[in-house]
Specification:
Rossmann fold; five-stranded parallel beta sheet; two-stranded antiparallel ribbon; 9 strands; binds thiamine diphosphate; binds magnesium ion; thiamine pyrophosphate; DH_E1; Thiamine pyrophosphate-dependent dehydrogenase E1 component subunit alpha; PDH_E1_Alpha_Subunit; oxidoreductase
Amino acid sequence: MALNTEQKTTLYRNLIRADEFNKMMYRRMMQGKLIGFYHPAEGAIAPGVGAASFLNQDDNLSPHHRGHGITHMLAKGIDIKYYLAEHTGKDTGCCKGRSAFHFSFPDHKVYMMSGFIGYNFAPVVGWGFAAKRRNQGQVVMNCSGDGSYGQGRAHEAMLMAQNWKLPVIFFCENNGMSIFSTAMEMHPKEHISSLADGFGMPSSIVDGQDVFAVAEASVEAIDRARKGEGPTFIEAKTLRFNEHDIGTPDLSGWEERSEEEHASMREREPVRIATARVLDEGILTQSAIDQIIEEALAEVQGVEDFADSSDIARPSVEQLMDGVFAK
Ligand SMILES: Cc1ncc(C[n+]2csc(CCOP(=O)(O)OP(=O)(O)O)c2C)c(N)n1
Ligand SMILES: [Mg+2]
């Protein structure tokens, strides 16, 4: 599905924002200004932006843990200051600073950002089922990594979604790695999307470094789902430039790739690819690009100022139970 100039500009802007926010998170983690740890998204910012930029406010989104969902959620329209305040353990965070990186933005229908791999497969089937019953064209975007597709519940979810023609998009961000294990070690076939064939589910493979290619495939799948034609599986082939996470003592600083591998991966950096494309197609001028970067940096600064000037969360024991369903 061809994208128009306005859509490409939106994608480019979101990609730059994702890049700057991810860099900010990395920097703050290294400065000791974040609680917990962070799964850097460098090299892998295009899948989330492409998958979520053209969802409606009313569509459900389950983000992938890389970047702690920042690329997906900013594209869905969340206010990032509440995301950073949460990661900084502040009262003003989206979960009052109590969640580290397990949180939701219910107003934006972004639910259950979690580090629990594969957590989302059962809920997305339920949301898809509810959406089908409501019959108002709502769709569910389920983003997860290659690692999660080894779980039984992923297969059950795909079976049910396809059987009931639910409006769920299984969006797989395949960076070829699950912490230290490669996708080749974990899956018998080269493409994770081949799983979809077994369920008779349509699938596609896209270059996950190309935000425009990701968005084209996503818009097509969203459209199918909205029309009641059922689920689609999208496999975005992407890369992980950094270690799995920073902040976990055994994982931080881990490095197995050679200089040459790093250099060739960086050729496939998503901002680099998108910038060449928007200039080449005459979608944006260099000065328009400079302005987008300037605005993104100002947004980052505003978000950091908000988090830094907020109070540290110091809930009482009674307050800790607020928002907990079972007491
Ligand atoms: C249920 C569960 N099992 C194991 C882990 C430990 N773990 C954290 S991230 C991860 C790998 C995830 O790989 P993938 O889904 O491909 O995402 P990526 O980190 O590569 O973006 C694992 C095994 C976990 N968090 N949850
Ligand atoms: Mg992976």
